[in-house]
Design goal:
alpha+beta; globular; single chain; 48% helix
């Protein structure tokens, strides 16, 4: 069931005209010259479409950021993309088109288009590795080239620059102003090639609500890469004007109407994985960037957006199931989210926090067993089996563990496919977008949100650091249960540090502290993994005499290893307790 995510990218053939092709689709906006940036979240008339223009939006920070447009003779105009996708069953697509939220608020019956797109990159996938995609889309007799960035710190927002071109062949010169400078020479020497195509039938309608206007596109079709293909059935919600919370408002109403799966994974990402015949990747969370001058309210928003983005980015790999890192990163994202919600409790009682935290805990619990069996199957079992070749039964034990692993993944997939999960994700996104915690905070506590976040961070980090030290007092003599309590406190401190340390100017001491805290958590985690293994082995070895022998060998191996862990763990603890806290200079 599990499969490595390291499959190398496979080259694909060029487009019929011999040129490479990109993917994805958005609106085209153009005007003479590089003009002011357009914010799609603000109401205003749609600009007219003019031949030969390029559109721009906030560049991604998840990869090398695209530079500001240089002077050029190309007609251009900035444009943005704020969107969310809802994956739906193809047979149920028409059902959503009649949902009350659409029937009551759509301007008209909309338009129908047949969109053919080609996605391009170099043979080495230089654009994709830099977080960019290049696509040419045909809509009737019109061709539009689009450069896009990956999602940055905001789940809904992506960079986008568009230009009219004469055919499906890309015009690299039009894209160059939006390509990072270090990539330009590479693109000038490496020819682009067509990686995959998208053949989509789209029914688009405009939905007007008091909070904003959203284009809702019902997309059905397929992505094609060589002999492989992947069906597409999704509802795309793109903000045209007003507040981005409008997207979540509509998404929530659609989720109540039928089964949907919120997604920010682009057609581009799916197509490139299809071409490479690989499972979705699972990323670690990006490091937070917090200016020391931000208010607590602004810090909360940044932290929550980061957690939500990590959660949404981890979902595809977890649902796919072939890459074990998917479930792992999804669990990490949920733990980070719970830590962020707990952090907000320090401001005062927030009515929605408990409900959100409860849903986070529910989803995480249904993923735990899958992750535990992944570690056992991919690390613990093969390591010990390789070291003990004379012991029989490891193969039998592995087959029994694989059955438990499959059961755990089925449980995880049921949770991810549950409507409860979709409603939780959409509700969370809307709460973050509107900064819903402002409505929850008691009037007497509202003032805290306007105070400098750095003061709050100093207090919270000091308290949690002291809690870790208190639980670890007389560390050498702690019982296994007491060490576990230290691990939990250290894990919470680790997440709080990731959230709040960027607020402190002394980056060197912050990095040193973070390294020592990470080292402590790693050692404590290894100690805890042994306890988890013992619980997994309980009853597993009884399926056959051979498996019982192998299970006993693993138990014995880890019992011996636990003795060796103690010196390293104690040394790591001493290093941590000797570390200078980076917020000390703020006292």
């Amino acid at each position: 069931m599990l499969k490595s995510d390291a499959t190398p990218a496979r080259k694909t053939t060029s487009a019929p005209d011999g040129n490479p092709v990109p993917k994805d689709n958005k609106r085209t906006q153009v005007a003479a010259g590089f003009l002011r940036q357009i914010d799609p979240a603000k109401p205003g008339p749609e600009p007219a479409i003019v031949e030969g223009a390029v559109s721009d939006q906030t560049p991604s920070q998840d990869a090398t950021p695209a530079p500001e447009p240089a002077q050029s003779t190309v007609a251009a105009r900035s444009a943005g993309e704020i969107e969310l996708k809802l994956l739906v069953d193809a047979e149920r697509m028409a059902h959503f088109n009649t949902a009350p939220i659409i029937a009551s608020n759509a301007r008209n019956k909309g338009t129908r288009k047949h969109l053919k797109s080609v996605y391009y990159d170099t043979p080495e996938r230089a654009l994709r590795k830099s977080g960019l995609s290049l696509r040419v889309r045909q809509n009737g007799a019109r061709f539009v080239q689009t450069v896009k960035t990956d999602a940055a710190d905001d789940p809904l927002r992506r960079g986008e620059w568009e230009a009219s071109v004469p055919s499906l062949a890309p015009d690299l010169a039009l894209a160059m102003p939006f390509i990072p400078e270090k990539l330009r020479e590479q693109l000038e020497t490496q020819p682009l090639e067509a990686v995959f195509t998208a053949d989509i039938h789209r029914h688009a309608r405009m939905i007007d609500l008091p909070s904003g206007t959203v284009e809702i596109a019902f997309d059905q079709g397929e992505l094609i890469a060589g002999e492989r293909s992947l069906p597409v059935s999704e509802i795309e919600l793109e903000l045209k004007s007003g507040s981005a919370s409008t997207i979540y408002e509509i998404a929530l109403r659609l989720a109540e109407h039928g089964a949907v799966k919120p997604s920010i994974r682009s057609k581009s990402a799916r197509g490139f994985d299809l071409a490479a015949d690989k499972s979705p990747s699972a990323r670690r969370p990006r490091k937070l960037q917090l200016d020391p001058s931000v208010t607590l309210d602004e810090a909360f928003e940044t932290i929550l957006r980061s957690c939500f983005l990590h959660l949404l980015q981890s979902l595809p790999a977890a649902e796919d199931g072939r890459n074990p890192e998917g479930v792992h990163q999804l669990r990490v994202s949920l733990r980070r989210l719970r830590s962020a919600l707990d952090l907000m409790r320090s401001v005062g009682a927030l009515s929605n926090l408990d409900a959100l935290r409860s849903e986070t805990k529910w989803l995480a619990q249904d993923l735990s067993a899958a992750r535990d069996w992944d570690v056992f199957q991919l690390d613990t079992l093969p390591t010990i089996a390789s070291a003990c070749p004379a012991v029989a039964g490891f193969d039998t034990l592995g087959r029994a563990a694989a059955r438990r692993q499959s059961e755990a993944y089925r449980k995880a997939h049921r949770a991810l496919g549950d409507r409860r999960c979709a409603l939780f994700l959409i509700g969370l996104g809307g709460w973050i977008e509107t900064r819903g915690w402002r409505n929850d905070v008691a009037a007497e506590d509202l003032g805290q949100l306007a105070e400098p976040a750095v003061n709050f961070a100093q207090r919270i980090l000091s308290e949690q650091h002291a809690k870790v030290l208190k639980r670890g007092r007389r560390f050498k003599s702690l019982s296994a249960e007491q060490v576990h309590r230290v691990r939990l406190a250290a894990k919470r401190l680790r997440y709080l540090s990731e959230f709040l340390l960027p607020l402190f100017a002394d980056r060197k001491s912050a990095r040193r502290y973070a390294r020592r805290l990470a080292g402590l958590q790693e050692e404590l985690g290894a100690f805890n993994d042994m306890a988890v293994t013992a619980s997994l082995l309980d009853g597993l070895g009884g399926e056959s005499p051979d498996s019982a022998i192998a299970a006993a060998a693993i138990a014995g191996w880890q019992a011996r290893a636990s003795v060796g862990v103690q010196p390293a763990l104690q040394s790591t603890w001493r290093d941590f307790t000797a570390a200078r806290v980076p917020w000390a200079s703020q006292n």
